[in-house]
Amino acid sequence: MTVLLTGGAGYIGSHTALSILNSGKEVVVLDNLSNASPEALTRVEQLTGKKAPLVVGDCANREDLEKVFSQYKIDQVVHFAGLKAVGESVAKPLMYYRNNLDATLTLLEVMQEHGCFDIVFSSSATVYGTIQEMPLKETFPLGCTNPYGWTKFMSEQILRDTGKADPRFHIVLLRYFNPVGAHESGQIGEDPSGIPNNLMPFICQVARGRLKELAVFGNDYPTKDGTGVRDFIHVMDLAEGHLAALSYAEKHAGVEVFNLGTGTGYSVLDLVHTFEKVNQIKVPYRIAPRRPGDIATCYADPSKAKEMLGWSAKRSLEDMCRDAWNWQKNNPDGYRR
Ligand code: NAD
Ligand code: UFG
Description:
Elements: E1 2-6, H1 11-22, E2 26-31, H2 39-48, E3 54-56, H3 62-71, E4 76-79, H4 86-91, H5 93-113, E5 118-124, H6 147-165, E6 170-176, E7 178-180, H7 199-208, E8 214-217, E9 229-230, E10 232-234, H8 235-251, E11 254-260, E12 266-267, H9 268-279, E13 285-288, E14 297-298, H10 303-309, H11 317-330
Parallel strand pairs: 1-2, 1-4, 2-3, 4-5, 5-6, 6-11, 7-10, 8-13, 9-14
Antiparallel strand pairs: 9-12
Helix pairs in contact: 1-2, 1-8, 3-5, 5-6, 7-11, 9-11
The structure holds nicotinamide-adenine-dinucleotide (NAD) and uridine-5'-diphosphate-4-deoxy-4-fluoro-alpha-D-galactose (UFG).
């Protein structure tokens, strides 16, 4: 059984590649390296003793995809490839719609032509928009607040319509909450280029002394300590969620959607203080104005994934903080070291 990971050299893709290889399946990666280093896959090979061949190419480019499907017998696909920076998507909407939607459309066309019908798609909790009722259930109405979110919303719709029209498709949509942390070896992890947008990589770089302090965006939200609350999920739990989704896809035609979160919300300050305690290191911070577009609270109802996929997150906030710092400490400059 061979699984193609589009965008598989990236943060979530490389951790998922490791889990899939350890499960006994083969992995092939297609990545244009726009936000990744091939070193991630070299390390996956070192950790697993198995190779995941990397095809450097664009998922929106039919020829590149044709090459992969002709060279390998692909049984299943996990579609990670996409641009993911919310702020950048507001500034460059066309780039986001072009890249993320073309990648999904071209991939589905080429899969259909090559008789491959199992696909797991990386969606996001961002498709729930500004809903305030928590926890978020898969049945809630959707709506987005930025072009990145709309590309996920539209890709979900494209996949739903494709599944409806062609009953040979087995489609699983996974809505990730806030993936953080790294593999426990400290050999692979999140490697953002430039100044990180997301909280955990920012905290890591402050702890390391590369950035002076964390700006906590708002302490006047209606939450227990006034700071934003999110459903942080360990990236290895998320990776294992993909294994469960691939097994589900093997057996089930049609389209199914699952939240992948822990079901517990922690605040920004919970994360900062847990990081300090677990790693015995200070994270200087100051309170700053709210970040435009942020919502107060966001956490999942993960019960559907537990019932239907037999998957639930196992790792604690302490594990996430320890593993994120272990990766950062071992690789102060990420894969560029
Ligand atoms: P990432 O940027 O590390 O990985 C995405 C990978 O896709 C990168 O390796 C990049 O080089 C590649 N890529 C982008 N466009 C491509 C294209 N046209 N052709 C081939 N490769 C392409 O991001 P990640 O955090 O690993 O996210 C993986 C997926 O999960 C993305 O679709 C993202 O939108 C989604 N997601 C991420 C989060 C998060 O917080 N990290 C949350 C929800 C959903
Ligand atoms: N935050 C800070 N300071 C920072 C960065 C973030 O206080 O420097 C706060 C934010 O205001 C928010 C929380 O930390 O309250 C989490 O912010 P992130 O940027 O880490 O994550 P978001 O919840 O904003 O968004 C993430 C991904 C999106 C995805 C969403 C839901 O970046 O792509 O989770 O899955 F859509």
